[in-house]
Amino acid sequence: MKRKVVMSLIPAAFVAMSACNEGEPSKEDILANALSESDELDAFYMETDMQISMEGEETEKMNAKEWHFPEDSGISKDRKELTRNEGTTTYIVSDGDMSLSYEEGDTEAVQNEVIQAEMESELNQRLQMVEDYQDTHDIELVGEEEVNGRDTYHVLMETSDEEAANEDVEVWIDQENWLLMKQISHMGDLRLTFEIIDLDTDPEYDEELFTLDLPEDVEIVDNQVNEIEVEESVEELSVDEVEDRFGQPVLLLDEEAGGVELENIEYIERSYDNFDEEELTFTYVKNQEPFMEMRIDEPTEEQQPVESERDIDIPGRAEHTIRGEDGHSTDMDTLRYIIWTEEGLRYNLSTQQPEVSVDDLLEAAERMESSS
């Protein structure tokens, strides 16, 4: 015997609508329409495929079917079915107030309260990426193409900085309703493809969509039961106390040469889900503003890089000799850092300041001095 339960969906991203300008739109018009407000979304059914490939070989595949019905109150009723690698299916349905998710074969279904703001954020995730990339990528309107029976505009977004760890993106935007019909992201050897393979903008409403027959032995649990409890303690240390902790001197930035000041040293302990971790962070400021951070730890054997990892093409990553030791840097849009190990301690020197380059970090590392 099976029992019927109302369940919920955290909707996927990929929808934005607005009115289309008359005439042939420019690339700016196309992106502006795709990025316009989606508060008045119409109902839809869509089926999507997503594939992840590494070095041309498919490593992950997911199919998603989604039904979305907005209501005048501002909430929506939804259903989603996710099948990963042609295996079991996860069902997520929502009546707008409560949600429940269940994967075939599980003994539990997870129930939680729907937070509409979170749903909207999920809905616009991919389009938010497109918006962010307008400032960091060169944009080209490739032309008009058909994607699964829909007329679309093909837009290419290429990173302006080939050394940075951001991706080149191609998007195909529906000419009628401004849906993101297809997206291909390239990041080194990694390729991610998302595509809407079936779309119905006038689906039939059926209350049965928002219910699910669960096996009789499945237990419904509250989401709070599955939440991970994190315990964290923060202790401010002196340089002497850091030396005592490691049993040796440590390297510090040359404050005079770099025009920086060590604001504080924090030792953070976290414990969650039977896992413990420690973090020792040195915060350096310049003109009273955060400028650089340095983390020091004692690397375990598992954290040591292996030869196979060095062969992987990771955008934004480069190998260096730092203070006579093997190390590497990573250059991303909003973060740059360098890592190396010296005298048994691993150093991570980073910055989020756009004016500070990887070369600046390398120079700062070479000027570092022993704490005693």
Automatic annotation (TrEMBL):
**InterPro entries for the chain:** DUF2092, LolA/LolB/LppX, Sporulation_related
Q: What is this protein called?
A: Outer membrane lipoprotein-sorting protein
The stretch of residues making up the signal peptide is 1-18
Is Signal one of the keywords UniProt gives this record? Answer: yes
> Which top-level group of life is the source organism from?
Bacteria
Keywords assigned by UniProt? Lipoprotein, Signal
- Pfam families from the entry? DUF2092
Does this entry carry the keyword Protein biosynthesis? Answer: no
Native species: Texcoconibacillus texcoconensis
Q: Spell out the PROSITE patterns in the cross-references.
A: PROKAR_LIPOPROTEIN
